[in-house]
Amino acid sequence: MSKIIFITGATSGFGRATAEKFAANGYDLILNGRRKDRLEDLCRTMEKRYNIASFTLPFDVRDEKAVFDSIYGLPAEWKNIDVLFNNAGLAMGRDYFEEADLNDWNVMVDTNVKGFAYVAKAVSQLMAARHASTGSAGHIINMGSVAGKQVYERGNMYCASKFAVDALNQAMRIDLLRHNIKVTGIHPGAAETEFSIVRFKGDEETAKSIYNGIKPLTPEDVADVIYYCTTLPPHVCINDLTITCLRQADAIYFNRKNQ
Ligand code: NDP
Ligand code: 8X3
Question: Which CATH number goes with the domain that contains 122?
Fold first, then answer.
């Protein structure tokens, strides 16, 4: 039986690249996101290209009932999840604190914190049950950010949501110890995905300017690191990992000169 990875936010960026990386290494895929057509296209492509099986699980992670019903309703053979890549998330807006849009704040907290926690809770229950019955343990990989390690100007609620991810990553590592579940937090810096287009609400010029003078991470760079974390011996767990491109030191400092 092949191993199974469940990826939230698989319609784009890190989620999509990670789906391909794991499929290329023989994993079967459970893929989530809201854009159903993209999920179905990706599943068909991965099945044909890598001869693996796949299952689409389209839901909005903010919808508590949809999250728990979808995950608990998985067919028995798909409940044996080896790896959860808890990745769905977004930034909305880049405004000064007092000028920020409350709707943007609500969407970020509902998605990056509450939705993130719903998915992890549902899947960790499945992993704990499987560990109790078969002894086989799972691995949860949580998508944080350098924005969850250091606050930057006009990052306010996005940074707060990713600080919460960092706290929940640490909390899961502690509470899930008794089930031998590995928990890994991944904290990338700037990577060129649809992230900035979403953050700047379709303003492609501003989105592009984020990467001026640097060669940012690619989704494939991050997918390679995530895959590596899952290849370590059973007794070894990477708890926390920050990755940036060469020209980014942390959430604030970039070397955009001497291109
Ligand atoms: P993308 O915009 O390319 O991908 C985001 C993914 O999240 C999409 O598949 C989107 O799918 C999904 N998503 C968003 N909201 C929801 C929701 N409510 N329910 C289900 N799925 C949702 O960006 P990235 O790949 O860059 O972002 C992935 C994660 O990485 C995010 O958590 C982000 O905060 C984090 N990150 C990004 C960095 C970057 O520079 N790019 C750096 C550090 C962290 P759909 O719209 O189909 O629902
Ligand atoms: C995304 C990276 O630097 O835009 O989490 O916050 S950053």
Answer: 3.40.50.720
Residue 250 falls within a domain, yes or no? Answer: no
CA 112 to chain centre: 10
Q: In the structure, what pLDDT confidence band is assigned to residue 27 with cuts at 50, 70 and 90? A: very high
What is the reported pTM?
Answer: 0.98
Residue 167's domain comprises: 4-243
- Residue 179's contacts (CB-CB under 8 Å, 6 or more residues apart) are 124, 127, 128, 131, 132, 137
Q: Binning pLDDT at 50, 70 and 90, where does residue 258 land?
A: low
Out of 113, 146, 156, give the residue to mutate to test ligand 2, the one with the largest number of ligand atoms within 8 Å of its CB. 146
Instruction: Determine which residue's CA is closest to atom 44 belonging to ligand 1.
Output: 145
Q: How far apart are CA 186 and CA 76, in angstroms?
A: 29
Q: How far is CA 169 from the centre of its chain?
A: 12
Nearest CA to ligand 2 atom 4: 190
For the chain, the domain total comes to: 1
Select from 92, 145, 152 the residue to mutate for testing ligand 2; criterion: most ligand atoms less than 8 Å from CB: 145
